[in-house]
Design goal:
It is a single chain. With 178 residues, the chain is of the alpha+beta class. The chain has one domain (2-175). Helix content is 30%, strand content 30%. The chain is built from 2 helices and 9 strands; from the N terminus they run H-E-H-E-E-E-E-E-E-E-E. It has helices at 2-42, 49-61, and strands at 46-47, 72-80, 88-96, 99-101, 123-134, 145-147, 153-155, 157-166, 174-175. The strands form 3 sheets. Strands 4-3-2-5-8 form a 5-stranded antiparallel beta sheet, with helices on one face. A two-stranded parallel sheet has the order 1-9. The protein has a two-stranded antiparallel ribbon with strand order 6-7. Helix 1 (2-42) packs antiparallel against helix 2. The longest helix is centred in the first third of the chain and has 41 residues, at 2-42.
């Protein structure tokens, strides 16, 4: 009799702990993939659209075995003038569901954290934004509807990470065909 009362609670605890662990793992991998993209891009003096696409594809693979959604990865090179004027986009690429677009126009102003500015010094940063919709196996427990990058919707948790990387060689990372 006691087993019939305790078993459902124990099963829910087991499933909940598995889902929490998987969610934390996907969130950690999302941060790692963004950091990896920033690291690989900032090591270069110049890149091409194809090279950025390949780097973003590799970053998406770091989320395996989670396959219920594909990550949306945005890489943006940002010029930050030392005189305090607005930061501008040098180039930008976004990969969503295997297609690459340009989310921010070249030369457009972009908001950045004021702590990234260094007075009197022109700096170029590479900002990597990674987003994914975490859809748990026991989605019936979720109240939050999310849209995935692969075009489906379900109940889950939207996860996002933003990573900044400072250019390592030279003063900027040029993109010849972005």
């Amino acid at each position: 009799m006691e087993f019939a009362l305790i078993a459902p609670v124990m099963i829910l605890l087991l499933l909940g702990s598995v889902e929490v662990t998987n969610g934390i793992d996907v969130n950690r991998k999302l941060a790692r993939s963004g950091s990896m993209v920033a690291d690989l891009v900032t090591q270069q003096q110049s890149v091409t659209k194809d090279q950025i696409n390949n780097i973003m594809e590799i970053a998406g693979l770091t989320l395996l075995p989670y396959q219920r959604d594909l990550p949306q990865i945005t890489v943006t090179s940002i010029n930050v003038p030392g005189d305090g004027s607005s930061a501008t986009v040098a180039w930008s690429q976004r990969r969503v569901n295997q297609s690459v677009t340009t989310p921010y126009a070249k030369g457009s102003t972009i908001a950045i954290d004021p702590n990234l500015r260094v007075a009197g010094t022109n700096i170029t940063f590479v900002r990597v934004e990674t987003n994914i919709a975490y859809l748990p196996l026991i989605a019936w427990t979720m109240q939050n509807p999310v849209n995935t990058s692969i075009g489906t919707s379900g109940k889950g948790i939207p996860m996002a990470k933003t990573i900044y990387g400072r250019v390592r060689q030279g003063t900027a990372v040029a993109c010849s065909n972005c």
